């Protein structure tokens, strides 16, 4: 796949200039294309599958081993208000095997007591675990001597996802997982903090929207954005709050093992912006005891006046997906180019005015935890320039739900995640059809 950087200069004094060809720079990007062949190290037929779907978590059995252990440090993250932090996992198995693996679960309590009540279930035995891990690594990853010693040290990059975490050691591989040890609990200092802002152009040229995720429902705290011109007067704009439930999902895995509470998604509208002006902003929540919770500070440049002589640099791509910087899910080799693409965009951010991500956004495919990880991955981009999305088959398609194709590509999400996690200036967000002019660029 390729990324197209489109530059267009408009000069109203000479209308003929608007008919000049667009200058198109093609940046080669190692973006994996869904369904584009077999990945290295993955059996034929598995390539392109969401890596978490390779885990038969519903088949897990309990075989706790007193001689096995798994310990994680530090156990309290985000003391410096960081939303991303690395942890060290030390594990020991008395019967090490090449298919031993460590899964990260969030919330930390993942036993059968968390399983939803099912009506008319004819299964003879209920599953012991009803939620998929949010990521995993094999025990011998970066530990060549594990089979000999039974000891390994792994590193995981954790992001704040509104709940605590625990790490579980399994034997039996992904297809027949046997739980042998569970770690201590790890959490962020404020798991409910406002995080991962996503800018989007509003319906008007001088309007910017900011969407973010937090753990605060509207009955716990009032969401808002404090913003204003750099070094100028700051004002506050309120935000609306959305969320959804398991029953809003159309099928499995989104409704079953892939379900994870999405938190609360807030959107604020910043209006009557001055053209080409730099604005600073930060996300805020006012608790009902009068205290405030703040995000870190961000900034963006407002759009030019329509028709103004300006150079607009527009990135257009699709099918990016997400990947893990800590090497998790590494045997899947799933969407390996997404970090390369993300990092290239971050590196060239000063030369980008707007991003259009046209469909197949996260490839979460019904594993909801992956949307948090995607918004964390693109935060340096989406917090600084408008990140406009459209829906693809991996966001929307599900049988008998009105999608264009009657496939199961969304994993049961049926568009709910995409239309809630991101703002689009459409009259009907479920339709995802909209036209957006950027200084007359359409």
From TrEMBL:
Ranges for domain Calcineurin-like phosphoesterase: 313-405
Residues in Purple acid phosphatase Fn3-like domain copies: 70-190
Pfam families per UniProt: fn3_PAP, Metallophos, Pur_ac_phosph_N
GO MF, one example: metal ion binding
Coarse class of the protein's main subcellular location: secreted
Cellular localisation: Secreted
EC number per UniProt: 3.1.3.2
Official protein name in the record: Purple acid phosphatase
